[in-house]
Amino acid sequence: MSLKAERTKRSSTAEPSERERIVRAVLDEIRPSLRRDRGDCELVEIDGNKIMVRLTGACMLCKLAGTTLAAIQACLIERLGEFVRLIPLPGAAKVGH
Q1: What pLDDT sits at residue 2?
Q2: 48 and 75 Cβ atoms separated by less than 8 Å
Q3: How many angstroms separate the CA atoms of 54 and 52, rounded?
Q4: Best label site of 39, 60, 87, 97, fewest CB within 10 Å?
Q5: What is the fold of 19-88?
Q6: How far, in whole angstroms, is CA 5 from its chain's centroid?
Q7: pTM above 0.85, yes or no
């Protein structure tokens, strides 16, 4: 089985990986600050060292969004102990999430 197929198989299980739990924990820690400013950040996908997120609410148009994303990325790198790239995806949040 290829590495990509193995990753896909692992990511399709109901039990989130330890990496995903760490990523979600970091986002949960920053979430109260984002919500105070009427915004939020949701995890969309983890693909290797790429972590895709979507900014919502006021965060979508905020001039400081880049700074916020850089701070989240730095925290993720520290917690995961490896380099990861936080990638903001455009668009509104999906209904039901």
Answers
A1: 45
A2: no
A3: 7
A4: 97
A5: GMP Synthetase; Chain A, domain 3 (3.30.300)
A6: 22
A7: no
Compute the average pLDDT of residues 44-58.
94
At 13, the amino acid letter reads T
Closest to 56 (Cα-Cα) out of 67, 43, 47: 43
- Provide the 3-class DSSP secondary structure of residue 80: helix
59, 71 Cβ separation under 8 angstroms: no
Query: CA–CA separation, 73 vs 76, rounded Å?
Result: 5
Q: Cα separation of 10 and 36, whole Å?
A: 35
Q: What is the DSSP string of 9-60?
A: HHHTSSSPPHHHHHHHHHHHHHHHHHHHTTEEEEEEEEETTEEEEEEEEGGG
Q: Where are the domains of the chain?
A: 19-88
Helix (H, G, I), strand (E, B) or coil at 3: helix
